[in-house]
């Protein structure tokens, strides 16, 4: 039986989405942050730092932060936007053909006054998270509910758990495979095909739609040591591959944009 239930993740209220075959995901309402995903085989596929705050005082270090409306420091607003530090609502959930899903929403009226003043636009974000056997499907919808156009960037900043950074091979972002052994931060533009993340005998197949770019990031030893929400050696345990819309897109009043990210485990 598939189930949707409220659980605690650290000190944060969260929703656990479980499919009939045991595949499951946990999403905190803080940030609509996917913090855990296991396929039907029960193996955790996402990294979350042991040093991450889980009390709503700062963005969670790991999982899938929703980046909106600004990417990194490319703008005058909050670094990587406010969506990852705002509290979303569970808007819908359900099941079909063994899959289970939940939809989380954030609208301008949900924002704390300081955030709403800093970005004074009418908007509705919906993040749909679906687990289905060996697959995870994330869809982010951005709607302009205001009277004026606004421009935004967005990303699903996915932290994949890996056995060791040195064993990882990323395919589909450049000619040949990408191998990272320390600090790496690169935006790949115009991603039009599938990507792969190979780690030993396991390959994850990544596909994105709507997001034209992909960011590959790892802080490496030095930057990880400088982050106070990451253990020094943890940089070896993850790689971020982030479907992204980097150049701001202008959305007319009443218009909507959708970006999708699907991941399939091929063990
Ligand atoms: O520490 P933050 O705000 O979560 O950002 C982490 C990283 O996020 C990546 O998306 C950026 O490309 C990096 O430059 C950045 O360091």
UniProtKB/TrEMBL annotation:
Top EC category: isomerase
GO molecular function: carbohydrate binding; glucose-6-phosphate 1-epimerase activity
Gene3D superfamilies registered for this protein in UniProt: 2.70.98.10
Top-rank lineage group of the source organism: Bacteria
Matching SUPFAM superfamilies: Galactose mutarotase-like (SSF74650)
A Pfam family this chain is assigned to: Aldose_epim
GO cellular component, one term: cytoplasm
Catalytic activity: alpha-D-glucose 6-phosphate = beta-D-glucose 6-phosphate
Record-annotated active site: 157, 242
InterPro entries assigned to the protein according to its UniProt record, in alphabetical order: Aldose_1/G6P_1-epimerase (IPR008183), G6P_1-epimerase (IPR025532), Gal_mutarotase_sf_dom (IPR011013), GH-type_carb-bd (IPR014718)
Any Gene Ontology biological process: carbohydrate metabolic process
Key words of the record: Isomerase
Entry's EC annotation: 5.1.3.15
Family: Belongs to the glucose-6-phosphate 1-epimerase family.
Protein's name in the database: Putative glucose-6-phosphate 1-epimerase
């Amino acid at each position: 039986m598939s189930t949707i239930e409220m659980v605690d993740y650290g000190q944060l209220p969260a929703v656990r989405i479980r499919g009939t075959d045991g595949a499951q995901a946990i999403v905190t309402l803080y940030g609509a942050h996917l913090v855990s995903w296991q396929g039907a085989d029960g193996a955790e596929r996402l990294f979350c730092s042991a040093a991450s705050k889980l009390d709503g005082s700062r963005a969670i270090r790991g999982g899938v932060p929703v980046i909106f409306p600004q990417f990194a420091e490319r703008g005058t607003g909050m670094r990587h936007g406010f969506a990852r530090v705002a509290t979303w609502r569970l808007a819908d959930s359900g099941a079909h053909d063994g899959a289970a899903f939940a939809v989380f929403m954030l609208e301008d009226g949900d924002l704390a006054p300081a955030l709403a003043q800093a970005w004074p636009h009418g908007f509705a974000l919906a993040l749909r998270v679906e687990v289905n056997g060996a697959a995870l499907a994330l869809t982010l919808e951005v709607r302009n509910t205001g009277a004026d156009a606004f421009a935004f960037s967005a990303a699903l900043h996915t932290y994949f758990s890996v056995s060791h950074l040195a064993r990882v091979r990323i395919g589909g972002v450049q000619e040949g495979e990408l191998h990272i052994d320390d600090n790496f931060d690169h935006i790949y533009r115009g991603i039009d095909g599938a990507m792969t993340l190979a780690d030993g005998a396991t390959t994850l197949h990544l596909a994105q739609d709507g997001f034209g770019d992909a960011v590959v990031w790892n802080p490496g030893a030095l930057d990880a040591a400088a982050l106070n929400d990451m253990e020094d050696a943890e940089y070896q345990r993850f790689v971020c591959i982030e479907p992204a819309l980097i150049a701001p897109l202008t959305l007319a009043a009443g218009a909507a944009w959708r970006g999708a990210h699907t991941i399939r485990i091929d063990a």
